[in-house]
Amino acid sequence: MTNPDVTGPAAASQSDEQVAQSLYAKAEKIYPRQVHGLFARLRVLGVLGLLGIYYLLPWLHWNGQQALLLDLPARKFHIFFVTLWPQDFFYLAVLLIIAGLMLFFVTALAGRVWCGYACPQTVWTEAFLWIERKVEGDRMRQQKLDALPMNARKFRIKATKHFLWIVFSGWTGFTFVGYFSPIVELGHNLLTFNLGPWETFWVIFYGFATYGNAGFMREQVCKYMCPYARFQSAMFDKDTLVVSYIPARGEPRGSRKRSVDPVSKGLGDCIDCTMCVQVCPTGIDIRDGLQYECIACSACIDACDDVMGKMGYETGLIKYTTEHAMKGGVTKIIRPRIVIYAVFLLAIIAAFAWSFSQRVSLGLDVIRDRNTLYRETGDGLIENVYILKVLNMDNAEHQYDLRVSGIPGLSLHKDIAVIHVDSGGILELPVRLRADEADLEARSNDVVFELVAKDNDALAVSEDARFLGPQ
Amino acid sequence: MAEIKVPKQQKCIAILWPSFLVAIVASGLFFSAFDPDDLYPFGEQAEISRLGIYSIGFLLFWLVSAVSGIGTLYFAMTNCMRRRPDSRDQ
Q: For site-directed labelling of A327, which of A165, A228, B5, B57 has its Cα 20 to 30 A away?
């Protein structure tokens, strides 16, 4: 790594080169040491909760169908009691904007808590690390094993680990596809070897991505691939919660016996045991200050508190703090940045909720017959032909009344007596409109189709169309 | 400023990863607007399931944006060399 003692312009360009090389150098494998403590327990809780939700949610049923099914083959998203259609794309886009703003808000307030506890990359890496530890043993054993030349024992251990990883990845891939295609059917097809080619492709693709990202790439995903890691610092200010070492208390660092009074030796509280470095999943030294690699997982806090406890020192040499607090000031939670994010967030959530409550689960498209502009009937009336597409987006079947207005004496003719559409169904309905030529004011006249459910006045839509005549 | 040698693996990630993200967004937008069953590529309806069309669409979007990424990387790198004639002496 860079040598802090070298100074001068020549050294600066040399260190530039070294930084560039270390950025692109073949990454050395990091063996994060297992850590115990408050934040480790919180993370395990988070990991178990999120993995549980991920693997179990697609099996949950609601009113006889999969509760969360983004049914791509059928072009319908079932999210508990609502069914969204491609026409509802707007809502999904707004939901994504809300999620993005929420991330901004949380980042400004509490730093990278997303990275340390909830990011899928962290969650699956933790699961893979757990499997690795169960099979290969702790950090020391893993390092020893990797240093050995390949032999039967090493091969057996490595093969077991990769087998378990692959099974776990395969299950992850299967579950992923289960969110987009009914999972019960998918499981049945898998067990009877009838999985379609594309389902197979996506199970393997996602499984492979999990295996690669959580098994091998790990912290490099955060360092090189994650866009959030690059721009999150833009949301940071002096009152954002960060994981930090307190140099004023720790320096000068140095080893000492438990019995020695550090003050008499001119030492700070840091005993330079490097535990904080050993537990770091991204392999950095938190004592070098805030770094973009830090995912705020707080493993170093747990490790350091443990050591401080053993030394009989006060804990919190590495802790969650803010830049203001470190400089002896008071952390301001309510500040313009937070207020602005919060106001935006609340406004969009309110607008979304209002708009969603106004959503009508009924769609009507009117398509004019393209072959003839109009025709004259035997009794001298002008007739236009349309095809109506009625889309019932509600979770119940309905019968509808169809009305048309816009021209005096306009009459509506259709071949079926009752407009009945099943839940989720589409009805193509040819209709004919007839009007007296004397009532037409122009060549092209505006008419309005109105469709209302017989059992619910709120289920109503209207659609404009044109009625053409000879004038 | 020393010349930075970027390993092949890094170049591959720099091309494949952003184009992957773009392909997700692009196919999401495209297939929200168009139902594969209503599409007639080259005048014929493809006899492939919707999931198949989505997948092929996604892979095509990925390919197209990856090609664009290769172009960006190529122009960026050749431009770097042109701006520093001294690096040719080394």
A: A228
Q: How far is CA A27 from the centre of its chain?
A: 27
Tokens of A149: 């030349």
CA distance B50 to B55: 9
Alpha-carbon span A168 to A206, nearest angstrom: 12
CA-to-CA distance for A58 and A171, rounded, in angstroms? 13
For residue B33, which residues of chain A lie inside 8 Å, CB to CB?
Answer: 86, 89
Q: Taking CB atoms and an 8 Å limit, are B10 and A198 in contact across chains?
A: no
pLDDT(A13) > 70: no
The answer to whether A49 contacts chain B (CB < 8 Å) is no
What residues of chain A lie within 8 A of the CB of B52, using their CB? 197-198
CB atoms B32 and A13 under 8 Å? no
pLDDT, averaged across chain A: 88
Q: Do A24 and B10 touch (CB under 8 A)?
A: yes
Identity of the residue in B21, B35, B55 whose CB atom sits nearest the CB atom of A201:
B55
Residues 220-279 of A with CB under 8 A from B: 224-225, 227
Q: Do B7 and A24 touch (CB under 8 A)?
A: yes
pLDDT tens profile A417-467: 889 998 878 899 999 999 988 888 888 899 999 999 998 888 899 999 999
DSSP letter at A434? E
pLDDT at B4: 60
pLDDT band (50, 70, 90) for residue A18: very low
Lowest-pLDDT choice from A54-68, A346-360, A457-471, B73-87: B73-87
Residues β-bridged to residue A427: A390
For residue A331, give every residue at least 6 positions away whose Cβ sits within 8 Å of its Cβ, in sequence order, or none. A239, A322, A324, A325
Share of chain A above pLDDT 70, in %: 94
Tell me, what's the pLDDT at A4?
40
- Write down the domain spans for chain A: 28-359, 362-468
| Fold adopted by A362-468 | Immunoglobulin-like (2.60.40)
How far is the CA of A202 from the CAs of A3, A181, A255, in angstroms? 47, 11, 53
Structural domain boundaries of chain B? 8-24+32-85
ipTM: 0.83
- Find the mean pLDDT for residues A86-95: 88
Helices (H) then strands (E): counts for chain A: 17, 16
Are B33 and A86 a contacting pair at CB < 8 A? yes
